[in-house]
Amino acid sequence: MFHGETRRPTLDRVQKQEMVASLHETFEAATSVVVTQFRGLTAAEATNLRRQMHAAGAKFRVTKNSLARRALEGTQYENLSNLFAGPVAVAFSADPVAAAKASVNFAKENDHLIILGGGLGEKRLDEAEIRSLASLSSLDELRASFVALIQRPAANVVSVLSAPPGQLARVFGVYGRGSEDN
Questions:
Q1: Helix (H) and strand (E) counts for the chain?
Q2: Region of residue 121 (phi > 0: left; psi between -120 and 50: alpha; otherwise: beta)
Q3: Number of C-alpha atoms within 13 angstroms, CB side, residue 150?
Q4: pLDDT in tens, 3-52
Q5: Are 130 and 83 contacting, i.e. CB atoms less than 8 angstroms apart?
C-alpha cells in the first residue's frame, strides 16, 4: 500500500478469479517482467512511476501476492513466484528492455523502489541482470538507429549529385584515378 492510501476492500471470489485471469493474460503477453518492492512509495511517486512506465512503453501493476502466484501458473514466468512476498508490484512490457529500463531509471531517483528480479521469456533474471538489460537500447531506439543508418548513404548520394558540376568532375576524377591504381 502506498503512503497516504486507504486499504482496499476485500475481494470476493469472482473478483479474485477475474484478477487472476487478467494477470495471467498480462504475463502471457509480456516479453519481459520486472518484480519490484515499493516500501514507502507515496501516491504521487507511484503516479509518476506509472507515467514513466507508460512513456517507456511499459506498465506497472501492484498485485496481491497470492493472486499473482496463481496467475503465474502455466506461464513462462512461473519460476518468479517466490519473488511475490511483501509489498510487490510488477512492471511488464512487450519490448524486452522497456520494463527494465523504466524500473531501473526510477529506482535510481527513488530508493523506495527496489528491484527484486524478473524474467525475459523463460529466463529468470536477478537484480544485476535486470540492470544490465536496462542498459541496452530499446526496440524503438534500435529501429531509429537502423533507419538513420539506412538513410545516411542516401543523403550522401543526394549531396554529391546536387554539387556543382565542377566538384562532380573532381570527385569522379579521384575515383577514376583510384581504380587505375588497383
A1: 7, 5
A2: left
A3: 6
A4: 555 555 677 888 889 999 999 999 999 999 999 998 888 889 989 999 99
A5: no
Cell matching residue 40:
514507502
The answer to whether the Cα torsion of 28, 29, 31, 37 is positive or negative is negative
DSSP state of 129: H
What whole-number distance in Å separates Cα of residue 173 and Cα of residue 147? 31
The region that residue 117 occupies, defined by phi over 0 for left and psi between -120 and 50 for alpha, beta otherwise, is left
Are 95 and 140 in contact by the 8 Å Cβ rule? The answer is yes
- 0.85 exceeded by pTM: no
**Chain segment 107-124, per-residue pLDDT in tens:** 999 989 999 999 998 899
The neighbour count for residue 113, using CB atoms within 10 Å, is 23
Three-state SS at 132? helix
Average pLDDT across the chain, whole number:
83
Strands, sheet with 114-120, edge to edge from the N-terminal-most edge strand:
58-62, 88-93, 32-37, 114-120, 123-125
Task: Compute CA distances 126 → 120, 131, 162, whole Å.
Answer: 11, 9, 54
Angle at 73 between CA 70 and CA 76, to 5 degrees: 135
